[in-house]
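Hi R.,

Here's the chain you asked about this morning:
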Amino acid sequence: MKTSVYQYSDYRAFLVAHFEDIQKRNPAWSYQAWALRLGLKNNTSLLKILHGQREAGPEIQKKLVEYFRFGPKERAYFEDLIRLSKVKNDPALSVMVRERLQRRLPAGRFVLLDVKAFALISHWWFYAIRQLTKLPGFRRDPEWISRRLNFRVGTRELAQAVKTMEELDLLEPKGRGVQTEEDVSQEALKRFHEGALEIARQAIRSVPVLDRQISSLTLAVSLSKVSEMKDFIRRMEDGFIRQFSESSGGDTVYQFQTQLFPLTQKENDT
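And here is the predicted structure, written out as tokens:
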């Protein structure tokens, strides 16, 4: 499965998504393995690029184009994504590059989404950490967070999540939610829901039945009422949040998808 570069408006987000796609199929895949595949001596330059500490220079840019086997149009789009990152502090050049990216898109509209925003939207544990801050004794320590979560997430990913949320001033809820505009960042949202469904699948066997509610309905409906059904679900979600969400004083964090299960363990169970 090839990750489409056209789904991204930040080349780092594209590279991170590609790495995660490969690692899902091959857990042994690492940044060092990728660096060697690119013909680099080590992963230092690659990691600096992915973490925003440097931009992709001409040599690495060429290696990446060859690695992805881009066609002429994909190559032009990818190279413009790199140019956009390099001229982000120049408003006039940024506008010019964005307009060119818009023209290069096969379809759809261009929305700027940097790698931090992509990570925030696409991984379920960002939201779990954010809700964990409401619980007594919360620590920003990745090891502590890892012990509290019911589902395995690496401490490196958790440390990066805490850092990203701190930089975006989103670690603590402070009365404001994290939302995305409609039709924006579709790839990131798809990845979030894929991750949420995966841990729901795990919860069926790993979480005691008394601690979860997982059910489904099968019914005949009219296509003309699909929009009405979606509105009903949204209203139900709003009511559910108003009734049960704790601004403070809670003792665990749950995921609700019409499957209800705990994302975290109790403090004394860890």
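One quick note: The beta strands are 213-214, 254-256, 259-262.

Cheers,
M.
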